[in-house]
Structures are given as C-alpha cells and as structure tokens.
Amino acid sequence: MTESGLPAGGSPLQQRLAAAAVELFYRQGALATSVRQITEACGLTPGALYNHFDSKDQLLYVVVRDIHLRLESVLNAALAEAAGDPVAELSAIVKVYVARHSDHRETARVANREFPLLSGERYDEVVAIRRRLRDSVVDVLLAGQRKQVFDLVGGEDRAAAVLTAIPILDMCVHISEWFHEHRPLSHTDLEARYIGLALRMAGARTE
User: Fold this and answer.
1) What is the dihedral of CA 195, 129, 134, 73, to 10 degrees?
2) How far is CA 136 from CA 4, 27, 130, 132, 196, in A?
C-alpha cells in the first residue's frame, strides 16, 4: 500500500485505476461513479477494469480496506515508539490521526464516507479494522487510568474508556472535512491543539 492509501502490491494499471476511483469517489461519491468514468479517467475502455478487478464494488473494497490498513500500520509504528507512557501514546495517536486526515484528505474522506457501502465479509473486515483502531485508544486510556495519569469521566471501566476514545477519534477524523492549507492554522498548531484537547478529554493529570 502506498502513502496515498492505494494498493501497492498491484500492477501500475491497478494503481492508476484505484487512484482515479479515489478522486471520483471523493468528488461525487462511489454510488454516483460509474465504471466508465473510472476507466475514461485512465484513458481506457470500461472493459479494462474487469481485467484487474471483479467489479466496481471490489475496487471500492480494495481502496477502502487499504486506506484503513495504512492508517493502522502508521499508528502501530507510532505507538511502538511511545510504548509505556500513556500520555506519549495518546499524543502519538492524535498526531497520526491529525496528519492522516489533514495531509491525505481525499483518501481519508473516501474511507470514512464510503465504507458503509461495503457488504458481507468485506464490510465486516473493514469494521474490524476500525474497531482495532478504536481499541488502540481504549487500551491507552485504560493504561493511563491504571497509572493514575488519566482520570476518565464516567468511571474506570472499559465502557468509560470507549466513550472517551470515540469523541477523540471523531474530532480527528472530521479534520478531513474542513481543513485545507490556506487556513491560518498550521499543521503543527493543529497537532498541538488537538493533542491538548485529547489529553483534557482523557483527564490528564498535571503535576
């Protein structure tokens, strides 16, 4: 999978088709995008897509799955570097989410908007990845609670951690809906502010 979230293991033509699909899905949604539009964007006939993907639905699945897997890979690497310090771990999570949803707005919006169109095992697979991402935050919050560096609203159990993790992730995910480079807030400022908000939501205890 490339940095853009597109499949890296496929052929150059598969990657071109995926890139064209992402751009079209971003602009008009997957439902409104036809196979003809995707292939025409690559200078191909509609039948060319079926030489590389079973259907538009499979192409959507591959794109959405790989965007999620890329985020998970980057997140796990960041957590490994901060391992053992819940404050640093939560900060690393927010930093990754802010970067992925401000620097890669097209892929982020496609992944988050279009995944409900998947069905069956494909939908279940993507939901499982999303749940793992959420649980990474939950585990950090619970670890911080045990180490008495976080004071979660609602108690010390997993339910309280989930109810804190969800709004932390939601506020980061929605960056892709409004952020652009011409706003006065820089990426560095955005990261710092969102990390501060997340730590407050977690009830981070200051000395």
Assistant:
1) -30
2) 22, 31, 10, 6, 19
Q: Please give the share of the chain, as a percent, with pLDDT higher than 90.
A: 78
The per-residue pLDDT for range 136-151, each reduced to its tens digit, is 999 999 999 999 999 9
Which residues contact residue 131 at a Cβ distance below 8 angstroms, ignoring those fewer than 6 apart? none
Sign of CA dihedral 80, 9, 106, 59: negative
Q: Could you tell me the CA-to-CA distances from 179 to 19, 64, 103, 135 in Å, in that order? A: 21, 21, 9, 26
Q: Choose the weakest-confidence range: 3-17, 40-54, 93-107.
A: 3-17
pLDDT at position 2 is 43
Tell me if 62 sits within 8 A of 53, measured CB to CB: yes
- Of the candidates 59, 23, 61, which has an alpha carbon nearest to the alpha carbon of residue 41? 23
Structural domains present in the chain: 63-201 (1.10.357.10)
Q: Please calculate the CA angle 103-106-110 and round it to the nearest 5 degrees.
A: 130
Q: Are 90 and 29 in contact (CB under 8 A)?
A: no
Whether residue 60 contacts residue 107, with contact meaning beta carbons closer than 8 Å, is answered with: no
Dihedral, 9, 14, 15, 18 alpha carbons, nearest 10: -120
Cα four-point dihedral sign 7, 180, 188, 92? negative
The angle at the Cα of 86, spanning 5 to 148, to the nearest 5 degrees, equals 155
